[in-house]
Design goal:
Blueprint lengths: L5 H27 L12 H14 L26 H9 L6 E6 L5 E4 H6 L3 E8 L5 E10 H8 L7 E6 L5 E5 H4 L5 E6 L2 E2 L9 E3 L12 E7 L12 H4 L9
Parallel strand pairs: 1-10
Antiparallel strand pairs: 1-2, 3-4, 4-7, 5-6, 5-10, 7-8, 7-9
Helix pairs in contact: 1-2
Bound molecules: the ligand Nc1nc2c(c(=O)[nH]1)N[C@H]1C(S)=C(S)[C@@H](COP(=O)(O)O)O[C@H]1N2 and molybdenum atom.
The site of molybdenum atom has 6 residues, from loops.
């Protein structure tokens, strides 16, 4: 027998018991319809699968709530980030003219974009709430290029299932399914509240995923990889956050 702690055994037992009452059935159905999240294994797996599958079946096309301009938070809460280092400072000093966003993977035309190029694409904006898993939130206006726009330019293969996105901060990477990647509110945000996106809030370019918790809105995005095999990245759980014990699917 593998070395399971007493606590793990109790937790596994609890899930097995719950499974008899429906979670197992849900997981089976989810598997059949391609609704398994990358972190759907392990002791929390059935719960994660149920959440993700239910969201995808019921709210695939729903929009996150948008707010009137008057509701924009006066003092948005900037979550601290680890030091960005000398290379970032150099890029920032040159006004990010050397910043590049690389898009590769299962696409017809792998491409690297400058910020000027990203700014030249059709722009979309929305006033939405960002919520941290720790409980705080704020409302702001974000503007930038819809991720769907960039994907259209590179041509994802029809079998693509996920987009992996990485930050200049090497420890931070995330992924989302094609439903969120093609969702009209999902932006590569370049602006916030009418100005350039400040570095503290993830400038020069941040992912804005409106229907999931703040940690999916990755700051300092440098690299997108379209894939049909999400399990080949990192430990196979779909994101650094799930490797750290958070849910891969952080729907709100
Ligand atoms: N690269 C990077 N992206 C990140 C983080 C980070 O530390 N580094 N923090 C995440 C978390 S936990 C949250 S809640 C939001 C916070 O965004 P904010 O600073 O605009 O409030 O950014 C997310 N994106
Ligand atoms: Mo967060």
């Amino acid at each position: 027998m593998s070395k399971l702690s007493r606590r793990q055994l109790i937790a596994a037992g609890a899930v097995t018991a719950a499974g008899a009452g429906g979670l197992a059935v849900a997981a089976k159905l989810a598997h059949r319809y391609g609704l398994l999240p990358p972190d759907g294994g392990g002791i929390y797996g059935p719960g994660e699968t149920l959440t993700y599958a239910a969201q995808r079946l019921l709210t695939r096309r729903s929009m996150a709530r948008e707010f009137p301009r008057s509701q924009i938070s006066g003092k948005p809460l900037q979550n601290g980030v680890d030091p960005l280092g000398d290379e970032f400072a150099r890029l920032q000093k040159a006004n990010f003219t050397d910043w590049r966003l690389t898009v590769d993977g299962t696409v017809a035309k792998p491409t690297t974009f400058s910020l000027a190029e990203l700014r030249s694409f059709p722009r979309h904006s929305h006033i939405t709430m960002i919520q941290c898993e720790e409980g705080w939130s704020y409302i702001a206006e974000w503007a930038g290029v819809p991720l769907s726009q960039v994907l259209t330019l590179v041509g994802p293969a029809p079998q693509a299932t996920h987009v992996v996105y990485r930050s200049f901060q090497k420890d931070w990477w995330e992924s989302m399914d094609m439903v969120d990647a093609l969702h009209p509110q999902t932006l590569l945000a370049l602006e916030m509240n009418g100005g350039e996106l400040p570095v503290g809030f993830g400038g020069p370019v941040r992912m804005r995923v409106t229907r999931q918790l703040g940690y999916k809105s990755l700051k300092y995005v440098t690299h997108l990889t379209v894939t049909d095999n999400i399990r080949q990245f990192g430990q196979g759980l779909g994101s650094a956050s799930s490797e750290a014990g958070y849910a891969w699917y952080a729907g709100i």
